[in-house]
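Lab notebook, bench 4. We co-purified these components, and the gel suggests they stay together. Before we commit to crystallization screens, I want a quick structural picture of the whole thing.
Request: model the full complex, all chains together.
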Amino acid sequence: MTAPPWRDEYLVFGSPCIGEEERREVLACIDSRWLGAGPRVHRLESEFKDYVGAGQAVAVNSGTAALHLALLELGLPAGSEVITSAMTFCATANAIVHAGLVPVFADCDRRTLNIDLADAERRVTGRTRAIVPVHFAGRPCDMRAVMRLAGRHRLRVVEDCAHAIEATFEGRHVGTFGDFGCFSFYVTKNVTTVEGGMVVCDDARRADRIRVLASNGLSRDAWRRASSGAYVHYDVLEPGFKYNLTDIAASFGIHQLARIEGAHARRRELWDFYRSELDGLPLCLPADPEPGTRHALHLYTCLVDDRSTRVSRDAVLSGLHDLKIGSGVHYRALHLQSYYRDTFGYRPGDRPNAEFVGDRTFSIPLSPSVTDEDARDVVRAARLLLS
Ligand SMILES: Cc1ncc(COP(=O)(O)O)c(C=O)c1O
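Here is the predicted assembly.
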């Protein structure tokens, strides 16, 4: 503990900006007496598909569910290998496991924190069938290179766009390059439905299958049956999952999406402020976005530069906490988490860049709910802990 906290309130990491429109929509949804999947979910799907420029969008109740269903829909043989980054949230690899497939971790690039595609290519075997690039922190992967690699080895591509709703690569939204794009609307994400997600693709038949899989395998969900004018029976087409989004959740998402560009502008202001004010501290700050791309600015991740400070990352985390500043760790290297280490035999040193980043990284608050005063407090705390 370096100083008494000067803030009255704890600055919650990733706290969302919920407006009057969301409040009114939730109440209107309650008054409509249709709270489950219905017209508001359909509206969110339609507006999201238009926003990202995809042919189809299916709303689900988490980004994890989006990944799971997209991977299942590929219909790959059980035990096929799927390459993803060791620098991602566990949900990316968990979904691969849940789909009966084997995650193979490639290392990340230390500058971009995205998957290192040369390392990914070295890991392709006769059993590899797909790749799941993660647009880390909102920075688009080089999708031209991903699609070339996939083409060379006939791999399917599922993009993990959990961080990257606003991100574009060469003018095109991420999520629209591969077979599927999977988005998260978790409470800290750039658009939130509290919990929720979206699968996008271009093929109507694939989208229909995802819709069926997300509603217990039923041929028609409750809203489609109720709005068809007469009682309609459903048929169970396959043993699906209970992954649908609700209209209450979509009530948030519709208005979050409508405000996304204004929120992104605020993220840009905070990003630029941190960039200039944290310069000179023993930190590696996020690299500038690559030309021809749009970064979604989801996370501001810094690495403690241990060549020029003896302060450890964990000391920074607890120092920030003591000063009432919430922070996050995105992420400790996934291949060394117990399940992946023990099941697939990974060892320390196997993915050196992901381990390097995972031992040094911490993220500071970047959501549009962060005020100028909050941001000044974050900088003041960082200077106190690291100068
Ligand atoms: C990279 C990444 N992929 C997938 C997910 C899963 O999304 P959800 O929490 O909506 O299930 C997350 C969520 O934090 C994520 O960060």
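Residues 27 and 248 are 9 Å apart (CA to CA). Worth comparing against the SEC data before the next meeting. The chain has two domains: 20-258, 260-386.
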